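2024-03-11 09:14:02 DEBUG pipeline.ingest accepted 1 chain
2024-03-11 09:14:02 DEBUG pipeline.ingest length=400
2024-03-11 09:14:03 DEBUG pipeline.predict start
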Amino acid sequence: MGAGGHTTNPPLQRKMKNDENLKRVPVTKPPFTLGEVKKAIPPHCFNRSLIRSFSYVIVDLTIASIVAYIATNYFFTLPRNLFLLAWPIYWAIQGCILTGVWVIAHECGHHAFSNYQWVDDLAGLVLHSCLLVPYFSWKYSHRRHHSNTGSLERDEVFVPKKKPQIGWYFKYLDNPLGRFLTLTITLTLGWPLYLAFNVSGRPYDRFASHYDPYGPIYSDRERLQIYISDAGVLAVSYGLYRLISAQGLNWVICVYGIPLLVVNGFLVLITYLQHTHPALPHYDSTEWDWMRGALSTVDRDYGILNKVFHNITDTHVVHHMFSTMPHYHAMEATKAVKPILGEYYHFDGTPIFKAMWREAKECIYVEPDEDLQHPPPPSAPPRHIVNHHLPHLPHPTPQR
């Protein structure tokens, strides 16, 4: 079942036919192999440099430290009007910088940081724990996401609902206020709810949590590392408790807490938009294969933040094909594979907040194509579901 079905919004379908950003991604088996794609990439792009990787960590942490130093030593001396203006600017800048740190820790989980697994795990554990992320717990579930991307049955996150699964209450959110509230909850609480309660994650037959070593997400050989992840988060939490005792709750919230909310919001937004698009397919077990799943992602443009986020935003397609490739080679690799991928590569340059609103409004649920034996050509109007009366909470996810 590639995604698809009918549409209840003919104007949108006409728009999709004319908008290159919304052109449906082909769902037929690609005419190229992973090996052929890899040959198109310069060999040095797969080289991991420990020194270069650590240089990005040092730069990010140095900038974050300078920004925090300025905030904690000078903001309190400003006049009230400037004081109230300075803190939101700090939160935005610090949140973006720390999102870049999060991305580097994510690379450690993919063994894209260095040639030494223990170095990657140690660096990832420290960096992710400082951002209250259980490193090994997320590493293992995220690895399964990469192994099953685009699968309606086995993908770990961003799995769209089928039409019969849409609850009656969703129709009450089909309005601008409802979508705004849905997106606000998703961007602020989505990440901690996913970690703690597997909200929006793959359904399991019993309670699943990234903090539970004996939960269904993990195998027996992974349980020790889950304990280590929990210990890392607890250690940082205790450090924050001591910091609150020394500096006060308001100080910690302003300096650390709100920037962390910005990090969590960007994390959800980035990953949501990488896997949520009106042109992207999902597949059931009769059609899914790893290559088509890896190609069911989209690169986005965040402007200057592409560099701040170490290009996780605009090189996600190649990342899903070669996840051990370091981020500092991903742009060159993306440029190299575009001629090979052709229509199977998807980039959408729609402004981010406009795209976020569009996806929340249009990407609701999935149904099978009406004619699996004779699928329409890639240039045909997409037949994914865009039912405006059944918005999907908290992660509206598209399908062809």
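2024-03-11 09:14:41 DEBUG pipeline.report Residues 47-369 form one domain.
2024-03-11 09:14:41 DEBUG pipeline.predict end
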